[in-house]
Design goal:
heterodimer; A: 317 residues; mainly alpha; ABC transporter involved in vitamin B12 uptake, BtuC; 72% helix; B: 251 residues; alpha/beta; Rossmann fold; 2 domains; six-stranded mixed sheet; four-stranded antiparallel sheet; 35% helix
Amino acid sequence: MKIRYLVLALVVLSIASVFIGVSEVTPKDIFSLTEAQQQVLFVSRIPRLFSIIIAGMSMSIVGLIMQQLSRNKFVSPTTAGTLDAARLGILVSMMVFTAASPFQKMLVSFAFALLGTIVFMKILSKIKFKDAIFIPLIGLMFGNIISSISTFFAYQNDLIQNMASWMQGDFSMIMSGNYELMFVSVPILILAYIYANKFTIAGMGEDFSKNLGLNYRQVVNLGLIISALVTASVVLSVGVIPFLGLIIPNIVTIYQGDHLKKSLIHTALLGAVFVLFCDIIGRVIIYPYEIPISLTVGVIGSGIFIYLLLRRKKYGL
Amino acid sequence: MVDLKNVFKTYNKKKVIEDVSLEIEKGTITSFIGPNGAGKSTLISMISRLIAKDNGAITIDGQDIMQTKNNELAKKISILKQSNAINLKLTIRELVSFGRFPYSQGKLTEEDQSKIDEAIDYMELREIQDKYLDELSGGQRQRAHIAMVIAQDTEYILLDEPLNNLDMRHSVQIMKTLRKLVNEMGKTILLVIHDINFASCYSDHIVALKDGKIVKQGRTCDVIDKCVLKDIYDMDIDIKEIDDRRICVYF
């Protein structure tokens, strides 16, 4: 797959995304927009498009980084408890600081996501039986434990309804003014690109890194911080999009290899295209109603996940 | 010169390395031999600062390895471990390119590229340089790793059981390459090796370890000796001289 095709797909789907919806805005109107149409475009459709692209790119890249650093192809925010921990963080920030600004919420959520991921990595290093399928199962269990803690406290504090909104990833609520926090991801992803070589070296192990004079701990820590920060900002604005960080990097690896410098841009583009595609499906399938993105991505993503698992077995990995 | 003085290492109260002192000359191949659990790998890992020593001093060309910056040391000494089982999908060329990391931090210059080309040609990997590591045979993969070490262009090269899982043909090929690196490029090579006949035929010096202590060190002809080997392996080993090479018969 060439980068060109991915860019083309991204452009085509982006245009489609902007013109799909209940309020009619067609490409013909673009030079003679009524005030209402302008509103729809600039307050809802374009913010939605941006948030989809950023969420798709960042969750995929985070998955890729986590897989390299943990040296396991099935580690991702979904299967390492990162997402659940980020959600618990949001809940705690709502309980403790009732009037928390989105930025404060993000910081608390980030701290929880980081802690959750570190705990998972510690568990991972203690496990002797390292089967490719076993690891994501442990991660999902770990995530569910965190989730049940969240549910308990949410129930006690009448926040179940509130929590459900980050349980399910959903772009339909995105409007200008409530998603800008997501742009935090952009500089972080650029940082990830600058560090691409170092992540790949760290992915080959501590001894390998030391041999090349790389400060292994520092690079791993940076990777975990990037993962947690990006996850927190996405969960807070959009909600949980499952499987994304798992399947996109694995698909890219198949045709592009594991050198981050080579695969990072592919991963970002494919992630954005995939989420855009799922979002459009979700919007047209029961038009004029909408299916939340977590459902479409979940259905398509879990199918691909099963395929990847079986494929791995076939190749004896 | 690599210089070890009274080096100790303890794991969980078990002494793995006990009072080891030795000097390694430049431009030679030194083999570390000994039974399993003798501390060979630990020792070589300590020299390359992968494992910290408990006591004693390790210096390379007069510099204490623990005082030297990681990045500087990576230009002076490289190590290839048996456990370098990489599960990333990388091509040979990508792997070899990482050897230049200490110099370029990932932004490869023209000089880096020519060093990479040289290393690939040296190990005769030119035709398969764009193949992924997981598509290679054990011998090819080992050659790719050695090419990376050559690209890293360090004066000292440490190898932990480089012949593991290789057949005879590939083993001989690797050992001949190492010999060539010493003779042509003036490298200094330290390796852990199990097959004493390979050690006998290709190394200048041998260090024999047992239970974390040096039993004997010296020129190859001094160590490949019936009495010395009996001491190390608790086995009667016959030594035959064939074409000026000492071959151990231990079957």
